[in-house]
Design a protein that fits this description.
- The protein has 284 residues and is of the alpha/beta class.
- 35% of the residues lie in helices and 20% in strands.
- The protein contains twelve helices and twelve strands.
- The strands form two sheets. Strands 8-7-6-11-9-12-10 form a seven-stranded parallel β-sheet.
- Helix 7 runs parallel beside helix 8.
């Protein structure tokens, strides 16, 4: 069920989750319960609902009520329980309220879910991506989209990474953060990386491939990589790449051959190449 509420004041307290709270504040706003995140655009919201995420409220451009947003409202109307508020206003009001134009005129505040453990994620996986300290949410979102499209079964992140449920990461991923399993390595008190996390990957039967520019690197087309029954592909932070300790603990250091004197790719671009090559046998 839902209740349409006309926006009458820009400073209404109920709208603060859309206007005032940072991503970190949304994450912590309901402790000890799981926090909230904001999904943007009908397609992304629907993918989140398909994955079992529960809406808390919505903010909609009035013009969208009879368009794509109508599908979401129909789904919400069929649900039992307390009616969720659906705040509606004119496009100019919503732009003034949020400070930006709403993608497809629709935002939805949703409840986070308890994350699975690494073991739960990896038990049925043969190809996983491991992201180490990737801080840009745009890169995280792009990597998720490539992982989902190009044959990876799951994504693991260290706690130095941007949260995949930050609004920009969700938007760039086109909602694929809701379609591929993921979790963080360890917890925030005990980061679990790199030594404990690497040990766990090996205990789970994964060979590990560090994407790094090293003289002793093997080509990404190396047959041994393609033949590995369980492979974890590790990608490092935008500036310095993977930690030396991480690289030293990996079974392989892998390089993408490049031309015209180019020595590296953006981590999101490198992930697409790596997932296409190393996830391809699994995805066929």
């Amino acid at each position: 069920m839902y209740q349409i509420i006309e926006i009458r004041q820009l400073n209404e307290e109920a709208l603060h989750i859309y206007t005032s709270l940072s991503e970190s504040q949304l994450y912590h706003c309901r402790e000890p319960l799981e926090g909230l995140f904001i999904a943007e655009s009908p397609k992304v919201i629907e993918r989140a609902m398909d994955a079992g995420y529960e809406p808390v409220s919505m903010l909609i451009d009035r013009r969208e009520l009879d368009k794509e947003a109508a599908r979401i409202l129909t789904r919400i109307a069929a649900r039992e329980g307390e009616a969720i508020p659906v705040y509606v206003g004119e496009e100019a009001v919503l732009r003034q309220l949020t400070g930006f134009a709403l993608t497809r005129g629709c935002l939805c505040a949703m409840e986070r879910k308890v994350l699975p453990t690494v073991r739960e994620i990896a038990q049925n996986a043969s190809r996983i991506a491991v992201l180490e300290n990737i801080v840009n949410p745009t890169n995280v979102g792009a990597i998720f989209r490539s992982a989902a499209a190009l044959g990876m079964d799951a994504v693991l992140l260290t706690h130095g990474c941007s949260d995949p449920l930050y609004r920009r990461a969700i938007r760039v991923s086109m909602g694929t953060v809701f379609q591929i399993p993921w979790t963080f390595m360890g917890d925030r008190k005990e980061p679990g990386w790199p030594a404990p996390g690497m040990a766990l990957l090996k205990d789970l039967g994964f060979q590990t491939a560090a994407m790094a520019l090293k003289k002793d690197s093997v080509s990404i087309s190396d047959p041994a990589l393609m033949a590995a029954p369980k492979l974890a592909v590790l990608l490092g932070t935008e500036g310095e790449g993977l930690l030396e300790e991480t690289i030293d603990a990996c079974d392989y250091t892998v390089m993408i051959p490049m031309f015209h004197g180019v020595d590296s790719l953006n981590v999101a671009a490198a992930s697409a190449v790596a997932f296409w090559q190393l996830g391809r046998p699994h995805s066929t």
